[in-house]
Specification:
Elements: H1 14-17, H2 25-43, H3 47-52, H4 54-63, E1 70-73, H5 80-88, H6 123-136, E2 143-148, H7 155-167, E3 172-177, H8 188-198, H9 201-213, H10 221-236, H11 240-243, E4 247-253, H12 257-269, E5 276-281, H13 289-293, H14 321-333, H15 347-350
Parallel strand pairs: 1-2, 2-3, 3-5, 4-5
Helix pairs in contact: 2-4, 4-12, 6-7, 9-10
Amino acid sequence: MRKEYELLDKINFPSDLKKISERKLQKLADELREEMIDAVSVTGGHLGASLGVVELTVALHYIFNTPNDKLIWDVGHQCYPHKILTGRKGKIRTLRQGGGLSGFTKRSESEYDPFGAAHSSTSISSALGIAEANKLSNKSDNVVAIIGDGAISAGMAYEAMNNAGASKTKMIVILNDNDMSIAKPVGAMRTYLAKLLSGKIYFSLRETFKLITSAFSKRFSAKAGRAEDFLRSAVTGGTMFNSMGFYYVGPIDGHDINVLLPILRNARDSKHEGPIMIHIKTQKGKGYSYAEKASDNYHGVSKFDVTTGKQIKSGTNLPTYTKVFANTLIKHAQKDSKIVGVTAAMPAGTG
């Protein structure tokens, strides 16, 4: 039997969410997380990534005017809280079932899903397309792409950032950095983001600088902005994202709603010409101990017992496609030493 919730039961659409005071949003996030864990335990699905963006999802729908403002989730693994808050709460236990809700965002399912995403690294380019269309139509609606640290390492994301930085089109990209793709991330981008996270000295200096410059009149704001850019470069060496034409903000705590709200509000209201990158740090599986301890095994789960965390596997004795492929490859490799196996950075999933 589904549990009753003090706040979540009153929310069917984002318009209902906006009626709640900011001080109650964390309680709502806690209820949303609990409901999602319970629902996915019945259906199976992508649990870990969705748990990590609960506070972000609440903050986004609280600050932005969806569905006029567009949220584009990349890859779509983290869209379950979004679905619950956008009119699909009553069907969340049909997730990935025949005739039920899709496991990803789906345009035909809801006007709150402006882009159907099931493949990685497409959000920035699709967001840029929508933002360019808004500009041509003289619309002021916001467009927000939410992309993970794994997805942003792919070539399509760089092509999109390259075009966005050059176009000077206003759009917001949220980099959800949880140091975890389907498996542990690999490559130079992971090292780079870790370096950014280690540069915390910048923030105390930045806040100090803002306190100083806030006393100046508006006619000094341009000079103050250039001075802040100089400070950023002097302390951190600048960022790759700045160099690509983005206004970079972060890293910030993606689980602190009191931090997320003013930053998202400022990004929404900013007169900055060009794309904005907000770098948030989150934990995959946040709020469910079994998922926090084994974020790779809880990326995508079968049905499971909420109390013990034990997943309920299907009883079939048939070999999986992955097992058949792997055994065949090994069989040939035993005869041909020139065969090389290349796997994606998700060794458990690809076998």
